[in-house]
């Protein structure tokens, strides 16, 4: 799966979770940033 298709999907899931459970905002943002960082690194490392 390409990074271009992963980022909007992760953002959509994070947005829905924030709407449903606002108390989890810090955790959702942290997980989102980690996932985007990992997918970004995987895209630059793989040949």
From TrEMBL:
InterPro entries (alphabetical): DUF3096 (IPR021446)
Keyword Transmembrane helix listed: yes
The entry's keywords: Membrane, Transmembrane, Transmembrane helix
Membrane-crossing segments per the record: 6-22, 29-46
Superkingdom to which the source organism belongs: Bacteria
Pfam families cross-referenced by the UniProt entry: DUF3096
Name of the protein: DUF3096 domain-containing protein
Organism encoding this protein: Aureimonas flava
